[in-house]
Automatic annotation (TrEMBL):
The lineage of its organism: Archaea, Nitrososphaerota, Nitrososphaeria, Nitrososphaerales, Nitrososphaeraceae. It is an enzyme of class 4 (lyase). GO terms for cellular component: cytosol. It holds the Pfam family ALAD. Belongs to the ALAD family. This is Delta-aminolevulinic acid dehydratase. Pathway: Porphyrin-containing compound metabolism; protoporphyrin-IX biosynthesis; coproporphyrinogen-III from 5-aminolevulinate: step 1/4. GO terms for biological process: protoporphyrinogen IX biosynthetic process. Gene3D superfamilies: Aldolase class I.
Amino acid sequence: MKKSSNSNAFPNVRLRRLRTTPAVRDLLQETRLSAKDLIAPVFVQEGLKKPEEIGSMPDIQRLPLSRLAGEVERIMDLGISAIILFGLPSHKDAEATSAFDDRGIVQKSVELVRKQFGNKVAIVTDVCLCQYTTHGHCGLVVDKKIDNDRSIDTLAKVAVSHAKAGADIVAPSAMMDGQVQAIRKGLDASGFSEVAIMGYSAKQASPLYAPFRDAAHSAPEFGDRCTYQMPFSNAKEAMREIETDIAEGVDIVMIKPAIPYLDLIYKARQATNLPICAYSVSGEYALIKAAAMNGWVDENAVMTEFLTSIKRAGANVIITYQAKKMAELLSR
């Protein structure tokens, strides 16, 4: 019989040798999650007397200001060193004046956390107008249309007020053109050149935000947000948004949502050396939670796989409503 010319082409390669035991698999694990990779979202509602459960987000609560320090302490005890604050004001108007009030709910929350914990926790603040406006849009509205340029002036005022309260990082999520540049100019002019900007650089117009809008009472009164948030079909446009934020001086790039847009996280990682944040949004959380509550999936296993995949795609940090649960699991 004639000897095959390919008989020595392939040595006895068996990749399964690298998976034989848990110890070997752990030794060779390429992507590792840490509690330090996670940012925990916190909802604080003005005038609230006791925590309120959020129906569409089981195990997540709106907190009164009096409970904020205890929540941050629990987060820090789990090894998480960053929070992102979302405020729910008692007063809303067309100009979002509560958003830049120095005694507003976010401003008071930042001051409290900074006084209680000093620099042991990184404080990120969401800079948007939807929770503070009567119409529920992320920018100011004139004749039922977003006025982009007036909106970015207001967003800059909001960011400065958060910085004055003690925020480390401001995170504009309104998807207004020029918002990063306007905020950078506002911060620098007010003496806050060391405050960083985490831009919601590629924020998709996604149905996965629905539970958040329930949590933050921020659903738009009319229309939708498709004129300023991105169409989920356009990866090239997303990269242009990211490039624009970088040109305007953003310090951290964010992609939101995370799991449906792992390709954008990967593309952004190839395109820039800036830190990348991925926001695993409320709908991602709710889908896992609902399936787990029905016994259809193992919540811990799916949560770990999803968050590891986000990091593997290229994210440095992840905002996730599963931050506490994931950190607890990692500590075992």
